[in-house]
Amino acid sequence: MFDWKELIELSEEMIAADKCKEAHWRCAVSRSYYSVFNLNHSRLIQANRIGTDRESKHSKVWLEMAKNGTAAEKKLAAGAKRLLSARIDADYYAEVTLSFEDADQWVRLAKRLIIETDALP
Fold first, then answer.
1. Whole-structure pTM over 0.90, yes or no?
2. 41-79: string of b/e by CB count within 10 Å (b at 16+)?
């Protein structure tokens, strides 16, 4: 089975590349988000807290954690929603400039959220 944490590793490699450009930074932010999202999506499905339907998976994951989760899950969901917003900007809005510093900040947030996810029961 694929390990979603590999996406955060890829993100770190993308922003560390010598000839890094904004496209790398955008991809790094996007992949970082999906690492956090998929780890939590899988965890909630295994706990029977959400269904497996494909409709609005993103909002269901973060809403379940924000409404019905522990304090740690609520905190994690808040950070993930911020990361989702950055991912949407990176994936869809060319007019939004993304710097190395921005990408690095979002990748570091994703790494922290993965650590928080791993600490959940």
1. yes
2. bebbeeeeebeeeeeebbebbbebbbeebeeebeebbeb
pLDDT value, residue 53:
80
Angle in degrees, 0-180, between the axes of helices 100-119 and 5-16, rounded to the nearest 10? 160
In a domain, 3, yes or no: no
CA angle 79, 85, 91 (to 5 degrees): 135
Q: How many CB atoms lie within 10 A of CB 86?
A: 22
Q: Residue 56: pLDDT band by 50, 70, 90 thresholds?
A: low
Q: What are phi and psi of 20, to 5 degrees?
A: -65, 135
Determine contact, residues 47/64, Cβ cutoff 8 Å.
Answer: no
pLDDT top residue among 54 and 70: 70
Domain span including residue 109 = 8-14+21-119
| 54 falls within a domain | yes
